[in-house]
From TrEMBL:
Originating gene: coaBC
GO cellular component term, pick one: phosphopantothenoylcysteine decarboxylase complex
Cofactor note: Binds 1 FMN per subunit.
Catalytic activity, reaction form: N-[(R)-4-phosphopantothenoyl]-L-cysteine + H(+) = (R)-4'-phosphopantetheine + CO2; (R)-4'-phosphopantothenate + L-cysteine + CTP = N-[(R)-4-phosphopantothenoyl]-L-cysteine + CMP + diphosphate + H(+)
Name used for this protein in its record: Coenzyme A biosynthesis bifunctional protein CoaBC
Organism this protein belongs to: Empedobacter brevis NBRC 14943 = ATCC 43319
One annotated GO biological process: coenzyme A biosynthetic process
Ranges in a coiled coil: none
EC number, UniProt record: 4.1.1.36, 6.3.2.5
């Protein structure tokens, strides 16, 4: 998944021949999962039609302060809506007006109201691009905190060859992805998350397992990816999905499979979150054929302990931030604190089967985070997606 996924991007198109590239830019941004709205300078309609950009963005395109019905196109609302504003193409005229604070069209009024990061992609002829006033305006905009997407060299509309043409849409999108990713708090960090149940086979058709759906772990993995982390998700059998996210998913079945996968990814991890519900025991012997019902009323199955994955990681951790989970039915705090100390965790996430909003297969969770100094932080019941964000905030504070 691109860092642009679910981001709100306001594309402002000014009047230059490169405006035709706005159609490809809108389409590329949407393919990355972004939500796009487009505004234009009035003259930009001479180069690309609002209908084209509206059809591609699936949003109305505006270019005047007042619409056909006399309703006001609120530039402040556009500015507050956007996570990022992109002025492309940014002509010499628009560039100059942005630099000196002129406010005589919808694009410029929106720019002056923007509180989000503003990117601009200059587009003009060679001599215009090299003119001292243009270079000064670019420098001035950058001093305001705006980000220039440098023009590229090539054949220009005038027939000249050199710098000045707007960066190609795919290069603009790549520039956005790289610069935005670098600002994310977990950029460059590796996060390993375990999720779901493990199944311990009795025979080819039966197993010992639990009711874990994997929802909580999957949400933690997605939240970490949204923050720029390189995420590896080790999941037991689960119907949950991370499709569209840049997450490496490793599917396992048994506790021993999960043990091997977690250890294989532990050494270079910065953060490890063990949210999987691992089976504590497995059958000593696994039948090669389906166990048949006999005349005896009882079937005795000998169980042996599975490896304690979390404890084994706690014993070898060096630089890693290690987080565990505890789902308890009684004496919740006491058991969670013992687990915290025994497994050498940095903090533990406790939820209780006594809370109707918590537990397996639910879309909500109610947690208490217990730090290794035994301080406690309680959270209200909320969606597991929001719980994941709370957990990641604690991780960020510790990092």
């Amino acid at each position: 998944m691109s860092v642009l996924h679910s981001k709100k991007i306001l594309l402002a198109v000014s009047a230059g021949i490169a405006a035709y590239k706005a159609a490809f830019l809108v389409r590329g941004l949407i393919k990355k999962g972004a939500e796009v709205k487009v505004i234009m300078t009035p003259e930009a309609q001479n180069f690309v039609t609002p209908l084209t950009l509206s059809t591609l963005s699936k949003n109305p395109v505006e270019w005047e302060f007042f619409g056909d019905k006399g309703d006001w196109n609120n530039h402040v609302e556009y500015a507050l809506w956007a996570d990022y504003m992109l002025v492309a193409p940014c002509t010499a005229n628009t560039l100059s007006h942005m630099a000196d604070g002129t406010c005589d069209n919808l694009v410029l009024a929106t720019y002056l109201s923007a509180k989000c990061p503003v990117y601009f992609a200059p587009a003009m002829d060679l001599d215009m691009y090299k003119h001292p006033s243009t270079l000064e305006n670019i420098s001035k905009l950058e001093s305001f905190g705006n980000i220039c997407i440098p023009a590229e060299a090539g054949e220009l509309a005038s027939g000249l060859v050199g710098e000045g043409r707007m960066a190609e849409p795919e290069n603009i999108i790549d520039f956005l992805e790289r610069t935005i990713a670098a600002t994310l708090p977990l950029y460059g960090k590796k996060v390993v998350v375990s999720a779901g149940p493990t199944y311990e086979n009795l025979d080819p058709v039966r197993f010992i397992g639990n009711y874990s759906s994997g929802k909580m772990g999957f949400e933690i993995a997605k939240a970490a990816a949204d923050l720029g982390a390189k995420v590896t998700l080790v999941s037991g059998p689960s119907h949950e999905s991370v499709m569209g996210y840049p997450i490496e998913r490793i599917d396992v079945v048994s506790a021993r499979d999960m043990y091997n996968a977690m250890h294989a990814n532990f050494a270079d991890a910065n953060v490890v979150v063990m949210s999987a519900a691992v089976a504590d025991y497995r059958p000593k012997e696994t039948a090669e054929q389906k166990i048949k019902k006999e005349n005896d009323d009882n079937l005795i199955i000998e169980l042996v302990k599975n490896p304690d994955i979390l404890k084994s990681l706690g014993e070898i951790k060096t630089h890693q931030l290690l987080v565990g989970f505890a789902l308890e039915t009684n004496n919740e705090e006491e058991y969670a604190k013992k687990k915290l100390a025994k497994k050498n965790l940095d903090f533990i996430v406790l939820n209780s089967m006594q809370d109707k909003e918590a537990g397996f297969q639910k879309n909500t969770n109610k947690i208490t985070i217990i730090d290794k100094d035994l301080s406690m932080q309680q959270f209200e019941a909320k969606s597991k997606a929001d719980v994941a964000k709370d957990i990641l905030n604690v991780i960020l504070n510790k990092l």
